[in-house]
Write a structure and sequence with these properties.
With about 375 residues, the protein is α/β, with parallel strands linked by helices. About 30% of the residues lie in helices and about 25% in strands. The protein contains eleven helices and 21 strands. The model has no long low-confidence stretch (mean pLDDT about 95).
Length: about 375
């Protein structure tokens, strides 16, 4: 198979030759702006669920495989299922469910890159803890985490914590070479944040959210994370979690280190209506995709958009170059996770083709098959 396309990173046109499901030849040709964009599959570092599947519950494997196929059609080829603060035995149960799913499904084995553990080592303060259950929040515990990770076959790849705990620094020092340490749901001061980064923390989880409603103008933990040049930052660009001006500021401050995540919940992808969910209770989902507490409409109840929708929103309102937007779900993540860019001769030909004018996903190749 031969494909002529514009490379998502070099922004030059190439002839891509694919043999035995691998890139066998990549040759530069004369630039043609009408060619589709060829990109690696998009990566979602934080996804709690989608279209009825909840990674914080014992989900049905067949339904979860259907969700993966739906995500593939949107160009999303790698995910980090996210489980949040809970009692230890429940975290083991939820994680084992994901492990068993990966073992049972070749598609899940290919697409599930790891588990993102969000909590329980986060702030206990209202606002900062978000929807996480206060009764299960605790100080970082190295031995407990190692036990959990061993039980889950080392599948935990990212852990979000708050460095406001005195136990956080030794935790980061001990584990940063094994997992990606992220700062989130925090009220840590600037010194605590900078020390956490010095010891190995690399990412701010959904910066600007999971925060108190009222903050000092300066200093505060959002400014401190924005100002630290060593920190990558993920954001939820669904049009509801962050104002456009905030997204613009974070984009400029984190030049080259910004990452888009969906942080979607199980109601994402479902029709508008009233629902009851485990976290939040009675919630309402609008046609526009805003998910809120039915009795308190001012409070969001999670994200109901997928990663591709967040990418399109970011393109339309923040960054009018789709090639730059693609880097927020590919290149920047490779850098964060210390991985190699996958578009090279000899590697598996897993990729996405995007129409540069309509932004339609024209093809999503994974495991030698186009899922679109």
């Amino acid at each position: 198979m031969e494909i002529k396309a514009t490379h998502y990173k070099t922004q030059k046109s190439y002839r891509f030759v694919i043999s035995d499901s691998k890139f066998s030849e990549i040759e530069e040709i004369e630039y043609d702006k009408s060619l589709p964009i060829l990109s690696p599959g998009f990566i979602d570092l934080q996804i709690n669920g989608y279209n009825g599947v909840d990674f914080n519950d014992n989900f049905n494997f067949n339904q979860a495989n259907i969700v993966l196929e739906e995500l593939l059609k949107l160009g999303i080829q790698q995910i980090y299922p996210t489980i949040i603060t809970n009692k230890f035995n429940k975290l083991v149960e939820l994680g084992e469910n994901i492990c068993e799913w990966v073992d049972s499904s070749p598609l899940a084995k290919k697409m599930v890159k790891g588990i993102h553990l969000e909590g329980p080592y986060i702030s206990t303060k209202d606002g900062a803890k978000g929807a996480h259950a206060l009764e299960f929040i605790k100080a970082p515990d190295i031995e407990e985490f190692k036990t959990l990770r061993n039980n889950l076959r080392q599948l935990i790849k990212i852990v979000t914590l708050s460095p406001e705990w005195k136990e956080a620094i030794p935790f980061i020092e001990a584990l940063h070479s094994e997992v990606t340490i992220a700062i989130g749901h925090t009220t840590a001061n600037g010194n605590e944040i900078n020390l956490a980064v010095e010891k190995g923390a690399r990412l701010s989880t959904h910066l600007g959210n999971g925060a108190e409603a009222m903050l000092p103008r300066h200093p505060n933990y959002i400014w401190s994370q924005l100002a630290n040049d060593e920190l990558y930052a993920s954001v939820i660009a669904d049009g509801f979690h962050l104002d456009q001006n905030i997204l613009k500021v974070i984009n400029r401050a984190k030049n080259g280190k910004l990452i888009l995540v969906s942080d979607s919940v199980s109601l994402a992808g479902l029709p508008a209506g009233n629902y009851v969910q485990a976290i939040g209770g009675n919630v309402t989902l609008t046609e526009e995709g805003r998910l809120f507490l039915t009795e308190s409409p001012q409070y969001l109840a999670g994200c109901a958009k997928n990663l591709w929708q967040c990418m399109v929103y970011f393109y339309e309102h923040i960054e009018p170059n789709i090639l730059n937007v693609i880097s927020l779900v590919t290149t920047n993540i490779y850098s964060l996770m210390r991985e190699k860019d996958p578009i090279y001769v000899g590697n598996k030909a897993d990729f996405v083709l995007i129409d540069p004018y309509t932004l339609e996903i024209k093809a999503s190749y994974l495991m030698g098959k186009d899922w679109c």
